[in-house]
Amino acid sequence: MDAALSAEDITDNNPYYTMGNEDNTFIKSGIWRSEKYNNNLVSKVWPNEAVFMDWFNKKCMNVWSKGLYDLYQQTKYDGLWIDMNEPTTFQHGETKPSDAIPVKAAEEEKTLLGDSYNWYYEFKSQKKMSTFELPFIPRYNPDAAAKDKPYSSNFDYMTLSLNATVSGLNNEMQYNVHSIYGHMMAMRTQQFLKGDNAPKKDDRTFILSRSTFTSSGQYTSHWLGDNWRSYDYMQYSIAGIMNMNMFGIPHAGADVCGFFGEKKDDEMCARWIQLATFYPLARAH
Q: Residue 218: CB partners within 8 Å, gap ≥ 6?
């Protein structure tokens, strides 16, 4: 189960969107006002238009429980794998809706790491008055060719705008809660699996989440994410899994034999399988 919920059809034909929209349980845009999408932040993932649950809003369980229950009627699952829940998107920040009106230009002081900076709600370019340009940015570049592109180092690279808001937490900025999105999704998923209406409420729950936070182990298992088919990543997995134990996520593992890369190396894969016998969680992806 990925974090994005399709908004390609926002009519009653899509009960999950309409239910969530009526309950006001989607993350809101801090840049655009859109009557069409009820000011919900819209981005692109597998659907070309998608919205994202506000897990802090308790009403999110209405649509999430319905979706997971309906899924069980089609596929009798024993556990759930929740993915793309950093959340990851296929664009940066958000999509501009067709009826978008920019939020009125305003300045508001926000506290970032203990210091106050001016945070602009309206931008005219990606470099001037941009909601994406923070007082500091990490030097992350996905590849050498991206160094001069506007998004080569921004925090919203392939994720949501950082000034998006969550109504379930007094309209808190995404900047301050982004890192616990996957943790909250896991918590709500377990809440359904243990609820009175869960199809297997008497069974032990199993959830596997890509995005986690300190203490997420009380709700979910974790794997280290998409890795590469190489001896280096086989070695990295040892420290990664041990770190997860320190973070309160004891049931953790890595993609055995790697995920990315086309090169086939039977010897490496055999060694990796041997190593994986010592993983708390071992699986291929």
A: 248
